[in-house]
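Reading a protein record of the kind used here takes little practice once its layout is understood. An example of such a record is reproduced below.
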Amino acid sequence: MGSVRAEFLKLKRSLSWAVVVLLPLMAVITGAANTVVSGGRLEDGWHTLWLRVVIFYGLFPLAIGVAALASLVWRVEHHGGNWNALMGRHVSSLHVVIGKVAVLAVLAAAMQTVLVVGVVVVGKLVFALPGVLPAPYFLVSVVIVLACLPVAALQSGLSMLMRSFAAPVAVALLGAIGGVVLLMTRLEVLAVVVPYGLLGRATQLGTGMFVDSGTVTTGAVAAVVVAALSLTAVVVAGTAAILDRLDIR
């Protein structure tokens, strides 16, 4: 728990919060602006607004955002003598890795919260939609956060190994493209075992896009959640094993 607490303390002055706020807001503003500029209507109310905000955001920007956050979380360890201090720690590698992933999980949850709040605000103030955002989209939001975990774990491992900020982000972009290809070719079984494909699948729940049926089903939700937790456990264990074998610089 000490490692987790230490990682949260590092968030106080982190640029990560700028990514957490700006990235989802850009997705909301872009979706709303495209609707206004095109003169289009939200034919299906909240559902249409959700589609216009979430679909593209979930295919590329979200994975890239998680990657940027992972690079920022590890950035401090690659400066000065911090890496050597990390390697001389009194806690296990597993605790260090879990601490980093825990921070990224909180940041991912914060990003999704900003997105949902943004959709609600735009829906009410800009488009005067009746009622509130339907409950299934709150469930989908929870699933999206869980689907961020394996991507966060993988990007955390890459950022641990790479001192460059941009290189792991480039890997995330390529991974996101690969995930899109898997979804477009309807290879759902393969997509859900690839972290980036799984994240894309989670954001499409209930949208009817690619391999989605258009309904948020128990089976689809369970498949994403089980895959997300399993992949996260595997990647975290692998990252901890690699960190055990690294040395002082």
In short: Residues 2-244 form one domain.
